[in-house]
TrEMBL record:
Keywords: Signal. This is Uncharacterized protein. Residues 1-19 form the signal peptide. The lineage of its organism: Bacteria, Pseudomonadati, Bacteroidota, Sphingobacteriia, Sphingobacteriales. It comes from the Bacteria.
Length: 196
């Protein structure tokens, strides 16, 4: 009987813990609290939050977290320049003395900064530099999509070609990340967060 209670307790604990998360990416949970902190930070003045708005933002947030996971897999979080940049930012936060290290907001701010720098660095390598520094790839993309540019010469539309090629690279990257890492979204938790 004791074994049954133990199993039941473990099951309820796992279900309860999952009920506090909007998503899990490769085994790492995104809590309701973390997600809503980021949502509110980027959507100020939004008193009524719809499920569709939250769902769209969660999709973007998951894509962001997948890119960060990819950056960590590549070891970018071990780079000395990255570590120094994060330490300098943390020091700057401490000198403001508005937020203590034990404050939950401090943890969110530091995690956001760490992740954003990693995502930026990897995006620069995988998307921006590739799209701006390899004219042969750009011209090839242009040739495949010439109709979208109304047959105008490459030189006239090169700026738009770069933007479109960057979007394609990002779409392909995110698609490959979603095939590589497991993502579980808890729609019911997201619905609880929506204020209709």
């Amino acid at each position: 009987m004791r074994k049954v209670y133990c199993i039941l307790f473990c099951f309820l604990f796992i279900v309860g813990a999952a009920a506090q998360n909007v998503a899990v990416i490769n085994g790492k949970a995104i809590s309701n609290k973390e997600f809503m902190w980021f949502y509110k930070k980027n959507h100020s003045g939004n008193a009524n939050v719809s499920f569709d708005d939250l769902s769209s933002y969660l999709n973007l947030y998951v894509n962001f977290k997948l890119k960060v996971l990819d950056a960590k897999k590549m070891g970018l979080d071990k780079d000395t320049a990255y570590i120094a940049e994060v330490e300098n930012y943390e020091y700057a936060l401490h000198t403001q003395k508005r937020i203590s290290k034990t404050n939950a907001e401090f943890v969110f701010i530091m995690n956001e900064y760490r992740d954003a720098v990693l995502m930026f660095n990897l995006s620069e390598m995988k998307i921006w530099n590739k799209a701006q520094n390899d004219e042969s790839l750009l011209r090839s993309f242009y040739e495949k999509n010439k109709d979208a540019y109304l047959q105008r010469p490459f030189e006239e539309v090169s700026g738009q070609v770069i933007v479109d090629y960057q979007r394609k690279l990002e779409r392909d990257w995110v698609e490959s990340l979603k095939k590589t890492y497991t993502v579980k979204i808890y729609q019911d938790e997201l619905r609880k967060l929506a204020k209709l």
